[in-house]
């Protein structure tokens, strides 16, 4: 089980590392060095690429964690690969052949988020693109499908479908609850259902989950409407471990 939890300070990272270590859960840290996909041109996008990438690398070294970040252009692949262990392809870019190839050619693990507009079956083509670059280190992330204009729905049948490609499947439990394109220009969400999505994903056999958490979600620079309060993290992970163990038993 792989968990990606956005970091906000050394104390918070230490707490997450302690929780996941106690539960024997492999923990991957996700940090976006640049937020490229924003509802408003006025939304926070970052503190500078190199500065942010160095912070992500420092987290990896200080807490002995693998780290990942999104990339958005072909040129970013080689740059980000110097700092992270996993290159993530954002959902809206999952059909960008040159971007996927650039990520694969770095030799890093490539995580491709399934587009909101894509069927699970169609993601086999993204997997093939990585493998045809002589890189077998690929995984896919489910994050829901567009439902109407301002909502997403998760079809859990897609998890075993994509697992049939022979790659690990991660469930993004926070972005799948987004309510994009709100009139305010700020994406909404339903964080109260994070536990529901996570438990269902583990029950159907997902290999890992993606979680965004914050000690005070209302203060988050992005995705504030989709964060799991940090105080709720340990209890949820214990439930997920118990569900996984019940499946093994």
Reading side by side through the largest sheet, how are the strands ordered?
A: 1-2-3-4-5-6-9-12
**How many helices does DSSP assign?**
8
Q: How much strand?
A: 15-25%
Radius of gyration: 17 Å
CATH architecture: Alpha-Beta Barrel
CATH superfamily: Aldolase class I
The CATH topology name reads TIM Barrel
Number of domains: 1
Biggest beta sheet attributes? 8 strands, parallel, barrel
Helix content: 25-40%
- The low-confidence parts are 1-8
End-to-end separation in angstroms reads 16 Å
Assign the CATH class. Answer: Alpha Beta
Average pLDDT level: 88
Order of helices and strands: EHEHEHEHEHEEEHEEEHEEEH
What structural class should be given to the helix and strand makeup? alpha/beta
State the total count of DSSP E strands: 14
Morphology: globular
